[in-house]
Amino acid sequence: MTLNLLILLGSLILIYFLVDLIFLRKSEHRIKQRARLSNILLIIGVLGGLFITINEMTLHLFLQILFLNSVELCVLILATTGIVLIFKTSITTNFAQGSLATVGAYFAAKMIIRWTESTELEMVQIIALAILAGVVLSFIIGLFIDTVIIRNAKRVTSVGKQMITMGLVLMLIGGIPLIFGTLPLPFNALSYEVTTIPFGDKFLVMPNHNLISIIITVVVLTILFVALRVTKWGLGVRATASNEIVASMMGVNTKVITALSWAIAGGLGALAACLYAPSSAQVTVSFMTPVQVNSFLASVLGGFFTFGGPIVGAALINIFTSIASFFNSVWANVIVYTLILLLVLVKPLGLFGKKTAKKV
Amino acid sequence: MNTLLLRKSKDKLKAFTKHPYFGYIVFGLILLAAQLLTMSGMIQKSTMDSIILTLIYAVIALGFSLLLGYGGLASLGTAGFVGLGTYFTGYFAGTLDLPFGLTILISLIGAVLIGTIVGFISLRIEGMYLAIITLGLSEILVEVFKSFEAFTNGVDGLSFRTFDLFGRLMSDEAVYIIIIIVFVIVMLATINIIKSPTGRALLAMKNSTSAAQSMGISLLKYRLLAFIISTVYAVLAGMLYMINSKFSIPTTWNLALSLNILAAVIVGGSQSILGITLGAFMIFGLSPAILSNIQFFIDHPAAISIFNGLLIILVVMFYPGGLIRLLQTFVAFVKKKYVEFKQKWKEYRYGKDE
Question: FRET pair for B53, CA 20 to 30 Å: which of A18, B8, B99, B285?
Answer without folding.
Answer: B99
